[in-house]
Design goal:
Length: about 325
Amino acid sequence: MALLDVKDLDVRFAVRGGDLQALRKISFSLDKGERLGLVGESGAGKSVAAFSILNLIAKPGYIAGGQILFEGQDLAAMSDKQLRKIRGNRIAMIFQDPMMTLNPVLTIGTQMVEALKAHRRISTRDARAIALKKLQMVQIPSPDKRLDQYPHELSGGMRQRVIIAIALLLDPEIIIADEPTTALDVTIQAEIMALLLELCEQENVALMLITHDLGVVSQVTQRMLVMYSGRIIEQGPTREIINDPQHPYTQGLINALPQMGEPGARLYQIPGSMPSLSRVPSGCPFNPRCPFATDQCRTSMPNYVHSGNVDVACYEVAKLIEQEQSLQEEDR
């Protein structure tokens, strides 16, 4: 049984004029110690999927259907009191901006001790010792000094290390990292991602990494989900998808990487933009931007087809697979 198993998750936002569907029956799983990447443009639904797991979606958002099974228990059906035992304890989350996560008027040590005391019966002295150990794990210089400092006294990279240390405080089984290096410069980003990967491998913690950076996903994750307009359109082993993307959208994302272009040439970009929730086209949501779109794509959403170890929701891929199978049968 998977550690986390999301089945047909449907998330909506109640607004005037009817509900807007942010996630459309998405399904995926996460095993213990596995590293999973969620990729896609802004507005694809990556962060909504992450927040849904811990039921952190603010109103008017709500989970309209589906299951979020953590060790067989449905998180979507739990009360706030039951969820408090899991949030930050067994499933931890690293948010995009550390200054939005850390309390500016409390010292780092106070915040870490409070987090431990919220979930464990523990003395302040023992909690402080654990906090110090976790700061050492994330390789913060002079960790004993940092415990008595305020967030504004630390650099962006150090604040992000503190957030990772807080996520590790209670030895969680899953860490959800929502674009954890967005506000950092490139060299610090690499250090933080290498640290996160090393800690997950050492502690056998499952990682769900939400990002739009395919370079990071290819280096850190074992499996990946490609999201578009609230749907998972391709999922499978990261290496297979990066080396041989099947869906036209995934192909476009990879072709848009700077290293894929010729020196001096204009960078490739996918024409158009992600549709808003109020204007999602019928059929495959990518059809207005897809060079292979047909009338079928514009009228109905394709089912998943298997291409190697990858699941793809695309009529064009389905046709290619059928043609290949026909040729193989003829050769026999």
